[in-house]
Amino acid sequence: MNPTDYSITDLIPQRPPMVMIDTLVHAGEKSAGGRLYINAANIFCRDGKLQEAGMVEFVAQTAAAWTGYLQREAGKPVRLGYIGSIKNLVINSLPKADSEIVSEIVVDSELLGYTIITGKILQSVKVLMQCEMRIKVDSAQ
Amino acid sequence: MTRENVVRTINGLLTEEFEIEEKAISSDAHLKDDLGLESLDFVDIAVIVQKEFGLTLKGEEMTSIRTLGNLYDHIYTCIQKK
Questions:
Q1: Is the pLDDT of residue A90 over 80?
Q2: Which of A100, A103, B13, B41 is in Cβ range 3.0-4.6 Å of A34 for a Cys bridge?
Q3: B3-81: what fold?
Q4: What pLDDT does A118 receive?
């Protein structure tokens, strides 16, 4: 199945109102992309803009959806993931509510039980934020 | 790549990335007790080691690394084996 064939809640453990990705648009061996329409009622919106925490969560959930997709395709259950740390976070601007943003993640490596990704969020061609993230995926499940 | 290069790279990481004072850095320094490194810091070290030296540190190898000297030696030994 293609990633877009899945309901997003089949790929990630989060549930509304914490779901911060609408669709996993594409998923490769080491990369993925997602899409989010920012509803004005989004819990991470303030003063009509998506706040930094919401953007970080969007990147993290893109990585979670990517892992979930690979797990599903392998016939395995979706695993929980935790943000271990965020490095080199750059936020250029906050997107407005009632607009759409996309995410791109690249898996740089998997070391010591952590998945190290580089993530960015774009609106049209403008990069709104980028960061490196260390994600611990629960291996006990 | 010499052992001195390894030492210089790792020490640079410790001072720049982890803001550890140079005077605290010695081969005998215990990574956790003396330098205050935590589990996630080891992930950052592993990332730098991979970028700088092309080595992938494994969890089971890291458990035997207690001091900075152990870390220098481990990396240098792995480079020699490449």
A1: yes
A2: A103
A3: 1.10.1200
A4: 97
